[in-house]
Structures are given as C-alpha cells and as structure tokens.
Amino acid sequence: MLRNYLVGADASGIFRAEAFTDPAIARAVELLHTRPAGGWTVASLAAEVGMSRTRFGTRFRELVGEAPIHYLARVRLSQAAGYLTTTNSTLYAIAQHTGYDSEASLSKAFKRTFGQAPGEYRRESLTRPIRIAQTMSPQRGTDF
Fold first, then answer.
1. Could you tell me if residue 144 is inside a domain?
2. 7 assigned to some structural domain
3. Is position 104 within any domain?
4. What is the pTM of this model?
5. The domain spanning residue 56 has which CATH number?
6. In a domain, 72, yes or no
7. Cβ contact 56:45 at 8 Å
C-alpha cells in the first residue's frame, strides 16, 4: 500500500523519489508536508536543514523539480483540496491550517490553480475524485 502511494505521489508530482536520496532535502520536504502553515522562506528552510540558501535552493530544484516556495504552495493547495473533500471545516480553518492568512488569499490561489472556488470544489467533490494541484504560479483556531 505504501509503495502504491509513493508511486502515485511521484507520478502526480507531489514529490519525486530522488528527493529522498539527499537527507537534507528529504527533511525539507518532510517539514513542508508536516508544517505547511509555517512561515517558510528559502532561508529558513536552508537553515533548518543546515545548508546555505543558495546550495539548498539549487539542490532542492535539482531533486524535487521546482523551487522550494513553489513546491510549498502546491503542497498547501493540495492539502486544502483534501480538507475540502474530507472535512466539514470552515474555509477559514482550512486557510489557517494550510498557511494562508485569510479565506480570500486561499480562495484566490485555489481558484487560480483548480479553476473553481473552494466552495464549488467542495460541492462537486461528492461526485468526482480528489484532484492534486499540478502546476501553479509562484504567488501565493482550526477544527482539524
């Protein structure tokens, strides 16, 4: 089951298996997935894994396939999509849990990536499988 998940996640772009060949990059990916609401910057991630900002950014792009902050935005939106389809949490709670300052900022990023508002996505989720954010532009109290 885990192998199937990892293959699917690799194919969908959630992460690339090559990232796990480098312990520092693997740790950064783990941090982004487990703490998406963190106020992450390239500098703070680099410091967290003990690398220079330049080396970290270059290595992350080599192994993951995109810049760290773009990857973080995709993780946040993918997690938000998951919460929309699996919980009754408010949009505000989901925004806070996934690192967005407000419902409006989450809604704007979500619509840009998924082509529909979060509420619309939630309503339609009953009749279709969850979509994972594939590409996006670089912009950017819970009850879970």
1. no
2. yes
3. yes
4. 0.75
5. 1.10.10.60
6. yes
7. yes
- Distance (Å, whole) CA 56 – CA 50: 9
Are the CB atoms for 113 and 95 separated by under 8 Å? no
Contact yes or no for 73/42 (Cβ under 8 A): no
Domain ranges, residue 73: 1-136
As given in the structure block, the two tokens for residue 52 are 């220079």
User: What tens-digit pLDDT sequence spans the chain (144 residues)?
Assistant: 445 544 555 555 555 556 667 899 999 999 999 999 999 999 999 999 999 999 999 999 999 989 999 999 999 999 999 999 899 999 999 999 999 999 999 999 999 999 999 999 999 887 766 556 555 444 434 444
**Number of domain units in the chain:** 1
- Helices of type H across 13-67: 23-34, 42-49, 53-64
- What percent of the residues of the chain are helix, what percent strand, and what percent coil, each to the nearest 5? 65, 0, 35
